[in-house]
Amino acid sequence: MGPGWAPGRACQGRGDPLKWRHCSDKDFAMFRLLLCALTLLPFAAMAQDRFSVPLGSEVLIGQYTGWTSKCAVRRTTVKVLDKPSLGTIKLRRAKVAVPKTATVGDLPSDCIGKLLRGVHIYYLADQGQTGRDEVTFRLQYQGVSGSSTRRVIVTVR
Q1: What digits encode the pLDDT tens for the residues 86-131?
Q2: Fewest CB atoms within 10 A around its CB: which of 44, 63, 81, 83?
Q3: Third-level CATH fold of 46-156
Q4: How far apart are CA 63 and CA 119, in angstroms?
Q5: What's the average model confidence in pLDDT over 38-48?
Q6: How many CB atoms lie within 10 A of CB 58?
Q7: Can you give the pLDDT at residue 20?
Q8: Average pLDDT for 142-153
Q9: 152 Cβ neighbours under 8 A, 6+ residues apart
Q10: Burial of 34 by CB count in 10 Å (0-12 exposed, 13-18 middle, 19+ buried)?
Q11: Read out DSSP for 1-49?
């Protein structure tokens, strides 16, 4: 905010933008609310899941597919942003049922439950190390603006 935006400084008139007046705390109430909401946005946008896996085993940590309004498949791209330290990630093509909720875009109700080509994401726990591990990945669907970021916490036991 510049020097003209602080309370007690000059603000544009509410009815006439050519008239100036002193700013008050009320002038900044909506700005403060918006600023607070924007600081929480990155945390709300990243979904988080938790899994447990025995040493040397694998666990399915996600299954995703994309679809059109006519329930045709959309290509799903998975980008691993933060790799796990106690295991590896494997992506496998698979048939995935359209879920009841969409992570990005709209969800036509007649698509729910249909099997479409998608991707399964597996976490494979390395031998010899136990503990807490994390992986973060981004999902992007062909022809859909926006993406979905997922953070998965895996306990290797």
Answers
A1: 999 999 999 999 888 765 555 667 888 899 999 999 999 998 889 9
A2: 44
A3: Immunoglobulin-like (2.60.40)
A4: 6
A5: 42
A6: 14
A7: 62
A8: 88
A9: 48, 49, 50, 51, 61, 62, 123, 134, 135, 136, 137
A10: exposed
A11: --GGGSTTSEEE-SS-TT-EEE--GGGGHHHHHHHHHHHHHHHHHEEEE
